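Researcher: Please translate sequence to structure tokens.
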Amino acid sequence: MCLILGLNAIVGQGFKRFIWRKRPYQFQPPRAFLLEVAIQQQRSSSFTSRVVTTGTTMAYALLMHSRNMTLLSLWAIALLVLAIYLATSVSRVHFGLIYPSDCLLSLIPIVLIMLLYTLINSRLSKGDPVPLTNPLTLNNYYFSELATHKFWLTLSIGTIIFIGLTSYPIEFWRKTLFMFGTLLGYMLFRQLNLSPSEGNGQKKIEIGTLIGKGPLQLVVYTYLVLNFMVIFVVNTLLGRRTGHLLSIIIRTVFFLAIVAETASVLTAVRLIAVQ
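Model: Translation complete:
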């Protein structure tokens, strides 16, 4: 997820940041009581479509996690990704937020992100396999990595870069809170329903093995939904009531705290599920 998220931030938003185009509704003269909103919206660019790019590439990343690819499954993935691309494009054009040409030109960052994701992911998967005998082993492996110096150094550098790219005057990724809202469904599905394990000497994806079945899964799912809803609401309020740099710092710390809390809850649930 971090890989496809980073590629969307750098490649997808890069086109949108440096190639400016007014949205369709910005040419309409605003009424007096909408003047302030209209002035704020003048900073919004329609090229390229962030929703179309992110939605299509996220679907591709999720579907490509299957290990045993057949020709039929590749065609099915291609058709599903194309359907998501067309659906998001039609919805954005229908609401008057972008032009049809923006959707067509969004294919440039989409294809570039997919190629980079496939290349980098294939190279990363060639490393030493992680011992994935069960969710408990998987959990112990990752939490042992949390104690290493390399992890905290990477986390610190990543946080500094995140704050820098979203601060004035760079503002590389201005709508971070909306992007996290777009990723909500993807992140929850992956955390709750996809668990890598070993089978016949190869890693594969098993559905529903991470936290088990029944009421326990529903409780944890509801908990995570509420957590990410709180993140979205707090980010929105911070963006309106505080300075830009202070807002970015607070929302970054808040987001990391929520992630740590969620990880601890998932740890407890996994321990219960495997007993």
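Researcher: Any highlights?
Model: The CA atoms of residues 74 and 151 lie 35 Å apart.
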